[in-house]
Amino acid sequence: MKWYRITPLDTLFFKGSEPMVMGSDHTATLIFPPGPETIAGALRTAIIRSQGVSFDEYNFGNVSSDLIDRIGKSGQPAPFCVIGPLFMKKDRLFVPAPYSWYIDKKSYELVMANKDKGHTVTLQHVSQITNSKVIIDGQNLTGWVKSGLQEVTSAGGFWVNVDDVGKNEVTLYHTDFFCAREPRTGIALNDNRSVRVHHLYSFVHARLKDDVSMVCGISKDIGIPEILNIRFGAEQRMARITSINSINIPQGRSNTFMALSIVEGNEKTNSTLIAAGKPIYIGGWDMHRRFHKPMKGYYPAGSVFSEKISENMIQL
Length: 316
Known about the structure:
The protein is mostly beta strands. It contains five helices and 24 strands. The strands form seven sheets. The protein has a nine-stranded antiparallel sheet with strand order 5-10-9-3-2-13-1-15-14, with helices on both faces. Strands 18-23-16-24 form a four-stranded antiparallel sheet. Strands 17-22-19 form a three-stranded antiparallel sheet, with no helix packed on it. Strand 11 and strand 12 (195-208) form a beta hairpin. The protein starts with a strand and ends with a strand.
């Protein structure tokens, strides 16, 4: 496993699944941090450019076997796994909070009210909640809190310092602790590149705060130099990737596994899911087919499963 720091040189924008069609909707949600497939695609594109290979040559397979071994064939999934991305502030590493962690709703409100600095909470263990509002498997002590019926809620969707994993008292951080959200308005264009009258789009960009970067792991050496500039996100903003020392993420001993990034919903993940938040729907642009990718549903980072079905998971 090789680890890298991602430092954007500007804001970043990763669009949600809403169709930006005239007469339909003129706003788009921000998905941040991006998923591992987005990072993998940016890396593959940057390596192709660094080799002086045209996209047409790559699409038709007119490239060296070494390049194919490193980044895979055009139109096929990357032959490597991207771990994360995670957040790093100075030298402190932050991972998603598991959706199987529960906190009382007052603590949840305090975390939301302290987005810029985080808030310390005491975790509520579902095995200790004995009323009928929790479903518990007697063998594994796995529980789900029914929404709206219990004064506890999941800590999923927040972030936690990796050193706090396994503790009963932890400090939870909102994504806004790591980045600022900047609203942007843009014009629409006609086919001839002229401005479309009375037609505007609204977006939200993310700008990482001081001393904050994203980090990701790559499961194999794909020939990334010590410093590599990539185009990243929907508006192809520049970011710099630099090699860093290996990162140690502590592993627990339970029979549950947490996803460090979004995980595609499929038969395997659906059958092993224990706890998750609202699904995320993502499409994108297929560079091989020159057309939109089909929309897929993903479980959010922090989702918990009964099996380790991806390298992008840690044992709790």
